Amino acid sequence: QLVQSGGGLVQSGESLRLSCTASGFTFDDYAMAWFRQVPGKEPKGVACVSQFESPVYYMDSVKGRFAISRDKSKNMVYLQMNNLKPEDTALYYCTTEVAGYCSGVALDWGQGIQVTVST
Per residue in 46-78, pLDDT tens? Predict the structure, then answer.
């Protein structure tokens, strides 16, 4: 199970941190990722962290602004989002990857949390 928190409405340039608490599986065995989806489009991978905390991957448009991390002691994964832009507005999902490395294929999905960035 993946339970997310931390979304909301912010202004352009502000920051948010998304959190995801994992349970019911061996957290250390899986890469973890964040996807986002806008209405009418397929979800896209935003960031991924492997089971060993490195390597990490980001979609081009968020490189330098977003940072993914995981805390094995708490079974949690985070997405720190800085300098947010209106085009970051989306429904964000925490996901478990199918393996310990980042494959781009999600095995399980959180409930989704809305991030809205106003101009």
Answer: 999 999 999 999 999 999 999 999 999 999 999
Contacts of 52 (CB under 8 A, 6+ apart): 100
Q: What angle do CA 70, 66, 31 make, to 5 degrees?
A: 35
Residues 6+ apart with CB under 8 A from 96: 2, 22, 25, 30, 31, 32, 33, 106, 107, 108
Return the structure tokens found at 95.
């996901």
Evaluate the CA torsion angle 16, 90, 48, 74 in order and state its sign.
Answer: positive
pLDDT (average), residues 91-117: 96
- Res. 93 pLDDT band, cuts 50 70 90: very high
Partners of residue 55 on adjacent β-strands: none
Q: How far apart are CA 77 and CA 36, in angstroms?
A: 15
Give pLDDT, residue 47.
98
